[in-house]
């Protein structure tokens, strides 16, 4: 048996190395196979003293860990390292980076599935030690000690908190809503109405926030002062309260297909996707009601130029198509929010305080609705989000919508809810673009780092779908055997076809599953699409079907109708979606694909 083997997880890492470093790596491995003892170097300050590094090239270093299959099994006279232990090579990196990685590494959690059940809980600073050891439902409401001052501060107006994944934005929003409710109860004991709105982008996150708020506010009277609702359900309730007919909603993709067919029949030179985007991202976003306003407006973010005569044609076409929607009783979500804003503008505000989570994905018309839902004044709007996690086309300038956060913004640059290893793997997926913040300034992740260390993400390439599902089952079983609760594990795919296969495989192995959007305490692994992961948090996450023929999906490319701007936006949205899904794991991330891995990953290797 060789003294130095290659870990299965290293194969994907190897493909990212330059050809010359690959050759140097192979030379070291061949030397070991020929009987030469590898020159292993101990790592000062390593979390596990068994970790070693080995020189690969002058500026490149390999990180090795004990091989559970080879340790102590050598025959007499067999060549082995001087300390009598067999090792696995798990990664090759520039020397300084390799040493940092090695210091925080816990090699036992990198063993292959079935080799041993080891708790994957990451290591962290002393102030988080108790929280990491606590049950996960308690961790989900744990606020970093340094962040209490943000949640309890008194602001003269609206405030904005931004930060990358794992910086605790959602927990801050949760604690802020609880603080405002407690303050309101103390200040107005005789007025028990809902005073605080805690709103977010999707139903799964709203349900999760509501459950966690129940933990933070055990007093029913105080808890009743907070309404937790999605932005769309709020718009629907406002409009429906002033109408005898419930709105019938139509999604953006369905609307684009409808308008595409009509545009083709009318012989128009515009695609259905272009018309929907122009309506939602320009006309509705800017609140334009007259043709002259549309002709004069700056079409921010819309690269395709439109001459005045073309704008007249687009305006008349959109007006006709929207009129047809009204006849059918159909509404788009931004359109419904715009109507809710008008309704609220004619009456009294609904709340005294509004807390907004996942703010980066709200449409301008939804912001107008929120602005109308709360009177302008101290602590009116508390906005939490990350432009780098935007999965929609929405671009917002809060100041232009009457929400002034100047001088009341705070950027979080320290993550404490996911490991540095997961960040290092996930961040290149975004590409090199800077994100436009909601304050009109470019937002970067410069200086962004994590306080937690854990295992490197595992990327598993498979020959076929049966092998991929079998490997997934092994991985989930290993997590369960390590003591991870089923509800602390999430498995996601890009589409419902992949998700159905995941659920069938796990159920066939006797592992109960539940939809990602389900709340409650059901002892089941959560399964769903990547979109359903948005805003949620788990100990372990597996992403299945991250293959080039599935991600980006063919439908997203075809929906662009050949529009280069729409195509670029579609690719960036898929990058962001994969980035968001990858950063939902606190402890461990597993990614699998059949055949060639998605270009969204390989383009950055």
TrEMBL record:
It catalyses: ATP + H2O = ADP + phosphate + H(+); Couples ATP hydrolysis with the unwinding of duplex DNA by translocating in the 3'-5' direction. ATP binds at residues 163-170. It comes from the Bacteria. SUPFAM superfamilies: P-loop containing nucleoside triphosphate hydrolases. Residues 62-85 are annotated as: Disordered. Residues 70-85 have a biased composition (Basic and acidic residues). The keyword Ion transport does not apply. Keywords: ATP-binding, Helicase, Hydrolase, Isomerase, Nucleotide-binding. Residues 142-419 form the UvrD-like helicase ATP-binding domain. Gene3D superfamilies: P-loop containing nucleotide triphosphate hydrolases. Its EC number is 5.6.2.4. It holds the Pfam family UvrD-helicase. This is DNA 3'-5' helicase. It comes from Streptomonospora nanhaiensis.
């Amino acid at each position: 048996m060789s003294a130095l083997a290659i870990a299965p997880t290293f194969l994907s890492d190897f493909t990212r190395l330059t050809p010359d470093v690959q050759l140097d790596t192979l030379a070291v491995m061949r030397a070991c196979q020929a009987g030469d003892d590898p020159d292993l170097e101990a790592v000062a300050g390593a979390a596990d003293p068994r970790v070693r590094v080995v020189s690969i090239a002058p500026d490149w270093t390999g990180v090795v860990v004990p091989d559970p299959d080879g340790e102590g099994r050598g025959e007499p006279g067999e060549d082995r390292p001087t300390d009598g232990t067999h090792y696995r090579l798990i990664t090759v990196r520039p020397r300084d980076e390799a040493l940092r990685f090695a210091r925080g590494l816990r090699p036992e959690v990198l063993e292959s599935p079935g080799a041993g059940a080891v708790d994957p809980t990451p290591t962290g600073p002393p102030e988080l030690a108790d929280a990491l050891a606590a049950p996960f439902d308690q961790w989900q409401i744990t606020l970093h000690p340094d962040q209490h001052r943000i949640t309890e501060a008194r602001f003269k107006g609206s405030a904005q908190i931004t930060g990358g994944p794992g910086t605790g934005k959602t927990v801050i929003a949760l604690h802020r809503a609880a603080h405002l409710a407690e303050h309101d109860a103390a200040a107005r004991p005789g007025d028990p109405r809902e005073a605080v709105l805690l709103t977010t982008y999707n139903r799964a996150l709203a349900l999760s926030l509501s459950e966690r708020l129940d933990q933070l506010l055990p007093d029913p009277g105080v808890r009743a002062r907070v309404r937790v609702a999605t932005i769309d359900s709020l718009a629907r309730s406002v409009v429906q309260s002033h109408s005898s007919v419930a709105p019938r909603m139509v999604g953006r993709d369905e609307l684009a297909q409808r308008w595409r067919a009509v545009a083709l029949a009318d012989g128009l030179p515009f695609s259905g996707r272009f018309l929907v985007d122009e309506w939602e991202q320009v006309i509705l976003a800017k609140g334009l009601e007259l043709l002259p306003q549309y002709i004069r407006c700056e079409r921010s973010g819309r690269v395709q130029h439109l001459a005045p005569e073309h704008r007249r044609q687009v305006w008349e076409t959109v007006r006709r198509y929207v009129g047809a929607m009204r006849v059918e009783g159909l509404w788009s979500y931004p359109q419904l929010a715009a109507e809710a804003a008008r309704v609220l503008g004619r009456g009294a505000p609904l709340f005294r305080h509004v807390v907004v989570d996942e703010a980066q994905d709200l449409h301008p018309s939804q912001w107008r609705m929120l602005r109308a839902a709360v009177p302008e004044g101290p602590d009116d709007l508390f906005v939490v989000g990350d432009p780098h996690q935007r999965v929609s086309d929405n671009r917002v300038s809060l100041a232009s919508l009457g929400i002034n956060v100047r001088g009341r913004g705070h950027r979080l640059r320290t993550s404490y809810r996911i490991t540095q290893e997961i960040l290092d793997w996930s961040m290149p997926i975004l590409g090199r673009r800077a994100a436009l913040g909601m304050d009109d300034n470019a937002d970067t992740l410069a200086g962004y780092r994590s306080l937690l260390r854990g295992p490197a993400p595992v990327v598993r390439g498979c020959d076929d779908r049966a092998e991929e599902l079998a490997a997934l089952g092994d991985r989930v079983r290993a997590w369960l055997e390590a003591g991870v609760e089923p509800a602390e594990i999430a498995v996601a795919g890009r589409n419902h076809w992949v998700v159905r296969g995941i659920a069938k495989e796990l159920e066939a192995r006797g592992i109960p599953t539940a939809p990602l959007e389900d709340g409650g305490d059901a002892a089941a692994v959560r399964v769903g699409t990547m979109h359903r992961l948005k805003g949620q948090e788990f100990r372990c996450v597996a992403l299945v079907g991250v293959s080039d023929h599935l991600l980006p999906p063919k439908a997203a490319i075809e929906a662009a109708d050949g529009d280069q701007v729409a195509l670029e936006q579609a690719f960036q949205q898929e990058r962001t979606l994969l980035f968001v899904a990858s950063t939902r794991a606190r402890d461990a991330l597993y990614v699998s694909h059949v055949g060639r891995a998605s270009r969204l990953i390989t383009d950055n290797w």
